[in-house]
Amino acid sequence: MNHFQQKFDPRVWEVVANIPPGQVMAYGEIARAAGYPRYSRMVSAAMSRSPEYLPWFRVVRSDRTLAFEYGSPAYREQSQLLKLEGVRFDGNKVVTVDPVTSLDKMLWGPRD
DNA sequence: CCCTTGACTATCT
DNA sequence: GAGATAGCCAAGG
Length: 112
Prior knowledge:
This protein is mainly α. 38% of the residues lie in helices and 9% in strands. It is built from five helices and four strands, in the order αβααβαββα.
């Protein structure tokens, strides 16, 4: 199988389903992990039709901002779900609870 | 075909 | 670091 057809390659769902709580992945990363480099937009299309069970909210842009319009209902829903998992926000960017954080962040934490 | 549309990205100002 | 720009690629009109 080498292309996204009407149904998306289940590998995409699989990758998303395996993102650990408190962590996030970018569209492009997911595409690569599923074996489709450069297919970030397809992942985006896949997410818009994602099954109910999928942790869609753990998918963010490569720059770590959320893909929805700032302040929109969808944006607020996603940010809330992420916060429930202990994720922090540095401005509009997601800051995951990565064990290997910089000394700076260890000492001062992310901005509020 | 040609053009537009996206829950996108890397790169350059 | 925030905008703008140019790639990207399947779908649908």
